[in-house]
Design a protein that fits this description.
Strand content: under 5%
Number of domains: 1
Distance between the termini: 41 Å
Number of strands: 0
Order of helices and strands: HHH
Helix content: over 70%
Low-confidence stretches: none
Mean pLDDT: 87
Structural class: mainly alpha
Oligomer: single chain
Shape: rod-shaped
Largest sheet: none
């Protein structure tokens, strides 16, 4: 998203929407990374892994 925004800006276009999309994408990624330890713990339970055989 950031690259698209920079290209639009350099071409003289309005890049505001790209900035909003980039911010939303970054927030989602940060939330996913923050949730990783909890998700990893839950995935380690036998109940979750039972389908692997």
């Amino acid at each position: 998203m950031r690259d698209y925004g920079m290209r639009a800006y350099l071409d003289g276009e309005n890049a505001f929407t790209y900035g909003l999309l980039y911010a939303a994408q970054r927030e989602t990624a940060e939330r996913a990374v923050a949730d990783l330890p909890r998700i990893r713990h839950r995935a380690g339970r036998g109940k979750v892994r039972r389908w692997l055989g």
